[in-house]
From TrEMBL:
Alphabetical list of PANTHER family matching this protein: RNA POLYMERASE-BINDING TRANSCRIPTION FACTOR DKSA, RNA POLYMERASE-BINDING TRANSCRIPTION FACTOR DKSA-RELATED
Keywords attached to this entry: Metal-binding, Zinc, Zinc-finger
Protein name: Zinc finger DksA/TraR C4-type domain-containing protein
InterPro entries from the UniProt entry: DnaK_N, Znf_C4-type_bac, Znf_DskA_TraR, Znf_DskA_TraR_CS
Organism: Candidatus Aeolococcus gillhamiae
Pfam families referenced in this protein's UniProt entry, alphabetically: zf-dskA_traR
PROSITE patterns per the UniProt record, alphabetical: ZF_DKSA_1 (PS01102), ZF_DKSA_2 (PS51128)
MF GO annotations: zinc ion binding
Zinc finger annotations (dksA C4-type) as residue ranges: 92-116
Domain Zinc finger DksA/TraR C4-type: 87-116
């Protein structure tokens, strides 16, 4: 991995990187508050469908579930940082098209454009 030094000072890329890294460490400290380690998070299994008689299990899991959701965002941020390094930041991972700046401002680690993220939600991964 090569680091290009920009003599003009902080480039938008550096700024973006620090925004992402700041968010990442904020999320990690919130995950710690749930008392869960990232390793545990990746082992958690939410295979059962929510809705039929599993409410109590879900309630018990809420803290872990929230921690896992946060951890998923951490992973998305990691991927965004990798795309930043690769010069592919801001491009949709599915169709390769540009992600609108408006969306990136709302979610700086967004990996998909709006239509692709919408069809992914419809295809499964119901929340
Ligand atoms: Zn797309």
């Amino acid at each position: 991995m090569s680091e290009t030094i920009d003599p003009s000072g902080a480039s938008p890329r550096d700024e973006l990187r620090s925004v992402l890294e700041e968010k990442r460490s904020e999320l990690l400290s919130r995950i710690e508050q749930f008392g869960a380690s990232p390793t545990e998070m990746s082992n958690l299994n939410f295979g059962k469908r929510i809705g039929d008689g599993t409410t109590y299990a879900v309630e018990r899991m809420t803290g872990a579930y929230q921690a896992r959701t946060l951890y998923e965002t951490v992973k998305e941020i990691d991927q965004a940082l990798a795309r930043l390094d690769a010069g592919a930041y801001g491009l949709c991972e599915v169709c390769g098209g540009p992600i609108p700046g408006e969306r990136l401002r709302a979610i700086p680690w967004a990996a998909l454009c709006v239509p692709c993220s919408g069809s992914l939600v419809r295809a499964g991964a119901r929340r």
